[in-house]
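Structure first, sequence second, as always.
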């Protein structure tokens, strides 16, 4: 169910002009601290490469 919701939300983001890559879902157990940290680090790098949010740019203008 969650996977379907995320897919739907990605489509909504695309429709709104926001890169769907800004939404990410990864299943991580509470016992997987290093995996969680790695996932967050990778996601932050991905977001940095995408640049500022289109919403932030529109508000600043």
């Amino acid at each position: 169910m969650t996977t379907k919701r995320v897919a739907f939300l990605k489509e909504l983001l695309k429709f709104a002009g926001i890169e769907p890559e800004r939404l990410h879902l990864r299943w991580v157990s509470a016992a997987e601290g290093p995996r969680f940290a790695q996932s967050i680090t990778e996601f932050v790098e991905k977001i940095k490469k995408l640049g500022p949010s289109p919403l932030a740019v529109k508000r600043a203008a």
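Margin note: The mean pLDDT is 91.
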